[in-house]
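Weekly sync, protein design subgroup
Attendees: M.S., D.O., the rotation student, P.L. (late)

Item 1: inverse folding check
M.S. brought a backbone from last month's batch and wanted to see whether the design step gives back something sensible before we order anything. D.O. pointed out we never logged the input encoding, so this time it goes straight into the notes. Structure tokens as presented (312 positions):
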């Protein structure tokens, strides 16, 4: 009679829908009862054969790739938001058994998106009258947005360091970028802004040579596109970009700060607020270069005098 009651309960649990809260309770109670194979049918909806990292990579690649190539923009935005949220939830799960999207999958997608973006810009530089400018502008913006999304995931996973170097090395892309009108290309500069914000917040840690290389390749394009970025997209937080850029510049050696900020000073006087306002970085550099350094020299000089004057 007892066994028949257990079987009846299991059959009921197998047939009825569960809420997420009920699911946790069912799993917990069945684990406590240790029914051996009797609960297998019930738990099929929440368990499968042990997954491998390779199988998980295939699934993640299919899902992420599906979003990147989606034809319906509204559905694409919804799925981007959903997958980003689920990946963040996974990151907060302390379970040792969880399988996460791998670095290899994310960088595979980065390289592919970069290739597509270079192809779009190459077409834009030699565009004839038969090519619809609006369609091409949309393709460039979409590929740039794809990269931003993947980079967001990399930053959340603390895997973004290699992308900074990858982006800094995109000399061909930067040259193509300079050859097309700002209205087509400004979304690309949001990738640079995104990296500077992450570096400025300490979310990406890379050597100073990589940080300087990033700015050497992409700072001028960011300056050129900043006005369009600010006006064309409501999602661009002007102050956030300026703070991130300021912080990134201030992590460099003082001579490099000086070269960048003197160049910015001249540009800002001519362009005004179509150029990022990084006065805070300029002030910090000024104090480092002229006030604190002078104070240190005086202290060193005073120390030398004191040592010389010390009586035998």
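Designed sequence read out in the meeting:
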């Amino acid at each position: 009679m007892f066994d028949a009651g257990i079987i009846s309960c299991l059959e009921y649990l197998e047939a009825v829908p569960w809420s997420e809260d009920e699911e946790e309770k069912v799993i917990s109670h069945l684990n406590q009862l240790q029914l051996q194979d009797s609960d297998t049918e019930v738990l099929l909806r929440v368990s499968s054969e042990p997954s491998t990292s390779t199988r998980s990579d295939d699934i993640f690649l299919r899902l992420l790739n599906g979003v990147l190539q989606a034809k319906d923009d509204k559905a694409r935005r919804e799925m981007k938001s959903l997958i980003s949220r689920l990946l963040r939830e996974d990151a907060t799960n302390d379970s040792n058994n969880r399988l996460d999207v791998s670095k290899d999958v994310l960088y595979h997608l980065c390289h592919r998106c970069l290739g597509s973006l270079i192809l779009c810009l190459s077409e834009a530089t030699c565009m004839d009258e038969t090519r619809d400018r609006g369609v091409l502008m949309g393709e460039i913006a979409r590929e740039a947005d794809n990269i931003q999304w993947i980079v967001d995931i990399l930053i959340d996973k603390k895997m973004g360091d290699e992308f900074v170097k990858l982006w800094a090395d995109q000399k061909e892309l930067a040259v193509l970028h300079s050859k097309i009108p700002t209205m087509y290309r400004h979304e690309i500069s949001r990738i640079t802004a995104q990296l500077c914000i992450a570096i400025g917040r300490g979310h990406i840690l890379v050597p100073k040579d990589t940080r300087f290389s990033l700015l050497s390749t992409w700072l001028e394009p960011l300056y050129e596109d900043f006005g369009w970025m600010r006006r064309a997209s409501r999602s661009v937080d002007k102050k956030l970009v300026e703070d991130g850029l300021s912080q990134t510049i201030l992590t460099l050696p003082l001579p490099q700060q000086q070269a960048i900020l003197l160049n910015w000073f001249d540009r800002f006087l001519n362009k005004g607020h179509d150029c990022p306002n990084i006065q805070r970085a300029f002030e910090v550099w000024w104090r480092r270069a002229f006030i604190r350094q002078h104070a240190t020299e005086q202290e060193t000089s005073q120390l030398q005098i004191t040592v010389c004057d010390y009586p035998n």
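Discussion: Confidence is low (pLDDT under 50) at residues 303-312. The first helix runs from residue 2 to 15.
Action: P.L. to compare against the previous round before Friday.
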